[in-house]
Amino acid sequence: MTKLVIKMDFEALLFDLDGTLLYFEPEAFIKTYLGAAAKFFIDLVPNPETFYTELLKSTDVMENGDNGNTTTLIDFMEDFCPKFDVDCETLRKRFLHFYETEYKAIKPLISKMEGASELLQNLKKLHPEKKLILATNPVFPFIAVRKRMEWGGVPENVFNLITHAENSNYCKNNSNYWLNIAKKTAIDPQKSLMVGNDGYRDMVAKKYGYKTFLVETAFENEENMTEDIMPDYRGTLEDLHNLIFK
């Protein structure tokens, strides 16, 4: 068997999760997630519409936060909690319990992305010196990210860093998200490749020095992919595999 070797000299590869390493139905996910969460919180927030409306508003605040002194999870909770007559610790514990139990409602919406696990395993096994980073938008706590990885067949142990709401201070649309990843993992963005399916949230990494690969299998947010963030490469994960290895 011919050994696969890196033919492009990246010191690190960053991967988005949803729509990149696993199949994911965004609209169905939002509907199912909000419905399951509202039901789970019904005793604390009796009006489901109020619950998911305010949850989405607080998520937007979290995504656009620029504090830098708190995690994105804290940003969310500090905006969300005052809207209800429930103490924040009670709400925090309820969210955790939800992810431990009823979050499984979204499991049928997630499936494996062909070639994803093979690509990651080849990179880790054959080129362990390359850093692999799961650069998912940190709007969910680690437990929620980990469960989606499990359901989508994405191996956890190959990554040097997984971004999530408990270890990140910014979301993807903030330059500091990308700069902090470089600091935490001691990588040079110009020698790193960001792989994702979102025309804005992932391809914006190009503004901060990263090379980019657009996964077109589940292309999202095309309308916001401006000329200055057009990807360096594009195609399927198989195309990415061929680009990286020879």
Your description of this structure?
This protein folds into 2 domains: about 10-25 and about 110-245, 3-Layer(aba) Sandwich (Rossmann fold), CATH 3.40.50; about 25-105. The strands form 2 sheets. The chain has a 6-stranded parallel beta sheet with strand order 5-4-1-6-7-8, with helices on both faces. It starts with 11 loop residues before the first strand and ends with a helix. The protein has helices at about 25-40, 50-65, 70-80, 90-100, 115-125, 140-150, 175-185, 235-245, and strands spanning about 10-15, 20-25, 110, 130-135, 160, 190-195, 210-215, 235. The protein has 8 helices and 8 strands, in the order E-E-H-H-H-H-E-H-E-H-E-H-E-E-E-H. Helix content is about 40%, strand content about 10%. By secondary structure, it is an alpha/beta fold. Helix 1 (about 25-40) crosses helix 2 (about 50-65) and helix 2 (about 50-65) packs antiparallel against helix 3 (about 70-80). The mean pLDDT is about 95.
How much β-strand is present in the residues? 5-15%
**Span between N and C termini?**
13 Å
Report low-confidence residues grouped into runs of 5 or more: none
The major beta sheet can be summarized as:
6 strands, parallel
DSSP summary, beta strand count: 8
The second-level CATH architecture of the largest domain is: 3-Layer(aba) Sandwich
Structural class: alpha/beta
Q: How many individual helices?
A: 8
Predict the CATH topology of the largest domain: Rossmann fold
Strand order of the largest sheet: 5-4-1-6-7-8
The coarse silhouette is globular
Q: What is the assigned CATH homologous superfamily of the largest domain?
A: HAD superfamily/HAD-like
Class of the largest domain in CATH?
Answer: Alpha Beta
Q: Roughly what percent helix?
A: 25-40%
Mean pLDDT value: 94
User: How many discrete domains?
Assistant: 2
